[in-house]
Amino acid sequence: MGLLALLLILVPAVARAEPGLPQTSGWPLSPAPEVVRGFELPEQKWGAGNRGLDLAASEGQPVFAAAAGTVSFAGLIAGRGVVVVDHGGVRTTYEPVTATVTVGTRVSYGEAIGTVRGSHCAARGCLHWGLRRGEEYLDPSLLINTTAPAGPTSEVRLLPGEAVAAVQQRVAARAAAGGVAIGPGGEHGFVLPATGPITSPFGMRVHPVTGIRKLHDGLDFGASCGTPLRAPADGVIAVSEYNSALGNRVVIDHGIVDGRRVRTGLNHAQSFSVKAGDTVTKGQVVGLVGTTGLSTGCHLHLMVWLDGPLVDPASWF
Q: What is the CA radius of gyration of the chain?
């Protein structure tokens, strides 16, 4: 059982806060985008507001289905390309988009449905992402944290805080003794790149540096600068770069694992000892924990992509 699995148990499904939401869903852009403007539902139906999320996007960028469903509209509305996907209890809308699907097409979560053409925002490129139940507008961010394990009768629940603290103490002790033990790893065989307490989970939050509320698109592990960073599994370095927000970072392509195309990202590093094109093995030291980019202290920001879209790393490790 992997470290994160110690924090999770499967329990019978319970009623959702919003009925009709798909069980598995996520962002329509990859990597997870900046939210340019949040959901602002006006008090009066005819009032000014923002009946969805405006997501930073560039011309020609692929747009993905936020959840499985059936395309119910793909065409022009007031001269702008719009795609609507019906998920049963709710439907999602995407604009401005040039559709690559047609009405009646069944799409899966993360499947490409079109490309960004034009912009919804006046000052910069963006995609307007909407969520509706009947005639009611809902906040699309409700779809970000709804991914659950496969199957209709299970959902993830955190254990009590005492259990989390106990795991963190064990992690800290193991780190002090020389770092992560390279073993079989979690359910998929992946090991954590560095040990330390989880200081910020995957999900919406106010960014500690910019003050903007947006998706935290990974898991943060508190670790001292200079702590070795290890490859979570065998793979090839797809990206090795400096990013103004994520600092020194690498993306590792692990190929197809258990039927999924998997990539992991290690960010804010002090330095890396690998470059794009290098082959790495599970547990190999590839760099050192740092605090480069928009960071408030030494830590690892771990990201995971499954079949294209970003997901909560806890769902894979």
A: 20
- Alpha-carbon span 110 to 127, nearest angstrom: 16
Strand 106-107 relative to strand 247-257, pairing: unpaired
Instruction: For residues 257 and 234, give the distance between their C-alpha atoms in angstroms, rounded to a whole number.
Output: 10
All domains of the chain in start order, with CATH = 35-143 (2.70.70.10), 158-315 (2.70.70.10)
Task: Give tens-digit pLDDT for 241-272.
Answer: 998 889 999 999 999 999 999 999 999 999 99
Element of type H or E holding 251 = strand 247-257
| Alpha-carbon span 209 to 193, nearest angstrom | 24
Q: Which two tokens stand for residue 4?
A: 């994160």
Q: Check residues 154 and 218 and name the one with the higher pLDDT.
A: 218
- Cα–Cα separations (whole angstroms), residue 271 to 57, 177, 253, 312: 29, 23, 19, 25
317, amino acid identity: F
CA angle 140, 296, 300 (to 5 degrees): 75
The burial of 128, by beta-carbon neighbours within 10 Å (0-12 exposed, 13-18 middle, 19 or more buried), is given as buried
Task: Identify which of 117, 105, 92, 123 has the alpha carbon closest to the alpha carbon of residue 28.
Answer: 92
C-alpha span between 293 and 244 (Å, rounded): 5
Q: What's the whole-number mean pLDDT along residues 226-230? A: 92
pTM assigned to the model: 0.46
80 beta partners? 77
Collapse the DSSP code of 285 into the 3-class scheme (helix H, G, I; strand E, B; otherwise coil) and give the result: strand
